[in-house]
UniProtKB/TrEMBL annotation:
Protein name: Carrier domain-containing protein
Domain Carrier: 3-83
Species per Swiss-Prot/TrEMBL record: Chitinophaga flava
InterPro entries: ACP-like_sf, PP-bd_ACP
Top-rank taxon: Bacteria
Source species taxonomy: Bacteria, Pseudomonadati, Bacteroidota, Chitinophagia, Chitinophagales
Length: 85
């Protein structure tokens, strides 16, 4: 089991989403959380702020492409790219 300091972006993002949308809501890491209706515009803003604070990144205007935030997998890829990994 990963500790919080060892947890990768995927684990951290999923934990945040599950806490916000409910533990009983099931979705795959590759599923489009917007298409599933799990995210509204206000929550999308909260998600961007969460990612910036949790991963010490700056989400620039050009990064605000919905494809970067559609799924847990896409967000992980986006974060790793921003971190240069």
């Amino acid at each position: 089991m990963e500790t919080p300091t060892q947890a990768g972006p995927r684990v951290i993002i999923r934990e945040f989403l599950q806490k916000r949308i409910g533990q009983d809501v099931q979705f795959a890491d590759t599923e489009d959380i917007f298409q599933l209706g799990l995210v509204n515009s206000l929550f999308a803003l909260e998600l961007v702020v969460f990612l910036e604070k949790s991963f010490d990144i700056a989400v620039e205007n050009e990064d605000l492409n919905l494809d970067n935030f559609r799924s847990v997998s896409n967000m992980e890829t986006f974060i790793l790219k921003k971190k240069g990994k």
